[in-house]
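Budget justification aside, the reviewers requested a transparent look at the raw inputs and outputs of the sequence design task funded under Objective 1. We therefore reproduce one unedited record. The lines immediately below are the structure tokens for a 300-residue chain.
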């Protein structure tokens, strides 16, 4: 018997991505993870095929392999594949992954869709971002600079969180989908509320506190957006923010070397050029988050 193919368009980073399957329950499961595309969603012609895997294998950390514009990932009996030449993907998902929306989103759907979207439409940024008084601050820094702790502090101070670790720019806008903050064990020294949580295995296989936050897909226009290059200075309580005029700081964004951010991206040059023309600052982060945010409020 021929089974009908079902299709649904869901919004990821402001784009309408089509998911198809012959399994109604699988379409329902994926639709619970993302909002439906609407008239404001941009077209991208990305099509993702969904299929259930009946095999049973223990879940571990997902392993990815890149080759000739293709992405392949596997965790237990679940598998994902994406091909930039056809802008299409294929997900074969075991019951364990289907029942765990956190892993389903991060390890499979986001991995495949972000890989495809960042080829033609958006440029990935390793950053945290938040909005203060309608002014969006994009905070860039090396791994370990304190981006996730900064995101947590922004939420504690009542600001709108946009991104904890990953955002995208395209067409003079900032895109992100941040629903959790991932914090290392030593963050409990700064945030007492973490003592109520257990350290869990995150989507990238690292043991972290996983803190849910009440945000969904964010698309921010460019009218009030600034970049901030952050460096830790935990020998001091106070933070220091200075206006930044050195365009060389953006060189690493034009030619990134960090894994996952160094993939070919057709829009990177134009997107980073636009970003470099926005107001930018250098921030030395002290121990006092309140002092840092007071300075940002003055800038906003």
């Amino acid at each position: 018997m021929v089974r009908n193919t079902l299709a649904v368009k869901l919004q990821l980073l402001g784009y309408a991505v089509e998911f198809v399957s012959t399994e109604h329950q699988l379409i329902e499961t994926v639709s619970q993870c993302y909002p439906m595309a609407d008239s404001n969603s941009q077209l991208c012609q990305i099509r993702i095929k969904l299929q259930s895997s009946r095999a049973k294998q223990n879940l571990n950390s997902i392993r990815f392999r890149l080759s000739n514009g293709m992405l392949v990932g596997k965790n237990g009996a679940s598998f994902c594949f994406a091909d930039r030449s056809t802008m299409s993907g294929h997900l074969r998902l075991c019951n364990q992954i289907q029942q765990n929306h956190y892993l389903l989103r991060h390890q499979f759907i986001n991995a495949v869709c972000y890989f495809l979207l960042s080829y033609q439409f958006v440029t990935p940024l390793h950053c945290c971002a938040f909005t203060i008084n309608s002014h969006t601050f994009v905070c860039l820094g090396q791994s370990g600079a304190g981006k996730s702790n900064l995101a947590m502090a922004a939420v504690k101070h009542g600001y709108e969180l946009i991104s904890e670790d990953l955002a995208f720019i395209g067409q003079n806008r900032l895109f992100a989908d941040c629903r959790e903050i991932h914090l290392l064990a030593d963050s409990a020294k700064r945030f007492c509320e973490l003592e109520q949580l257990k350290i869990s295995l995150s989507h990238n296989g690292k043991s972290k506190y996983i803190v849910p936050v009440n945000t969904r897909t964010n698309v921010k226009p460019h009218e009030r957006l600034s970049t901030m290059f952050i460096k830790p200075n935990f020998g001091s309580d106070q933070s220091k923010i200075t206006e930044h005029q050195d365009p060389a700081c953006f060189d690493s964004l034009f030619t990134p070397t960090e894994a996952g951010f160094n993939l070919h991206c057709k829009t990177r040059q134009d997107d980073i050029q636009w970003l470099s023309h926005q107001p930018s600052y250098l921030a030395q982060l002290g121990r006092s988050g309140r002092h840092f945010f007071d300075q940002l409020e003055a800038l906003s």
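The chain has two domains: 6-120, 123-299. Residues 181 and 211 are 5 Å apart (CA to CA). Computational costs for records of this kind are itemized in the attached budget.
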